[in-house]
Amino acid sequence: AYIEGVFAVSSQTMAGIRREVRETVFWVIAIVLVTTALLYPTILTLMRRLTTLSLNLLDANLETLSVLGSAIAKRDNDTDAHNYRVTLLSVRLAEALGLEPREIQSLIKGAFLHDVGKIGIRDSILLKPDHLTDEEFQVMKTHVQHGKDICERSAWLRDAVDVVGHHHEKYDGSGYGEGLDGVEIPVRARIFSIADVFDALTSKRPYKEAFSLEETVEILKKGRGLHFDPALLDRFLEMAPALYEELSGREDEGLRQEVAGITQRYFSEDTAVHFD
Q1: At what angle do helices 253-268 and 11-77 cross, to 10 degrees?
Q2: 101-151 pLDDT, tens per residue?
Q3: Which of 191, 216, 218 is nearest to 202 (CA)?
């Protein structure tokens, strides 16, 4: 034998269940809101403290970048203005080409530290006033590997390797580092090589006077497709007169302030936190 039946909940019972559910939801929401209100000031304080610590760490890293770049520049040329100028030149071209902020960050690091490996080159070669012999030049070329070794030891500087390790590559493959050619050369290194040569030509050095804009442009054009990426060079030459007027031979404090401003703008984006 078996029995079939139907169980029906009374309307009064259902109404009571609905009321209890609403009350439960109300109290859960109320508890969450009260807890949030109580914890918000603490969370806000902790977030602000974290942001301050992040900014302090960023400032320390940027200061180390500047000091390290300036140290080798002082040893090599007795001036660090070259680092500031090539950084500005590189960033100007990178912005004109539409590079992403992350890539420009790496470019800034690499521009400042491009010759950091020269710290491992002995003075008799680094400071030699005459032309280097073939043997001495082979030793000089090792500064690229020294620079890569230095940057790769730091997680924060590791992305500078593209410039530090490849800024002596040439578009036709005749440069040194790894003998890369064309687009095998990282774009940041291709950008920097133009800025580096432009500044070297337009700056006075112990062994030469500064070249005029016209002379510099002619030399750069001769390197089109050989030393330099043709597309990048063409874009740079459009900007060259204005850049020459703005930066050629400058060593003033304003130059350093401009680089500091650009550096802060690009690197502070990673630590920016907005509080409402």
Answers
A1: 150
A2: 999 999 999 998 898 898 889 888 888 878 889 999 999 999 999 999 999
A3: 216
- Active-site annotation, residues: 118
CA torsion sign for 222, 195, 250, 203 is negative
pTM equals 0.77
Q: What is the 3-state secondary structure (H, E, C) of the chain?
A: CCCCCCCCCCHHHHHHHHHHHHHHHHHHHHHHHHHHHHHHHHHHHHHHHHHHHHHHHHHHHHHHHHHHHHHHHHHHHCCCHHHHHHHHHHHHHHHHHCCCHHHHHHHHHHHHCCCHHHHHCCHHHHCCCCCCCHHHHHHHHCHHHHHHHHHHCCCCCHHHHHHHCCCCCCCCCCCCCCCCCHHHCCHHHHHHHHHHHHHHHHCCECCECCCCHHHHHHHHHHCECCCECHHHHHHHHHHHHHHHHHHCCCCCHHHHHHHHHHHHHHHHCCCCCCCC
The 10s digit of each residue's pLDDT in 169-178 is: 999 999 999 9
Count Cβ neighbours within 10 Å for each residue of 59-81 and write b for 16 or more, e otherwise: eeebeebbebbbebbeebbeebb
Please say whether the beta carbons of 235 and 92 come within 8 A.
Answer: no
Q: Which two tokens stand for residue 120?
A: 């491992």
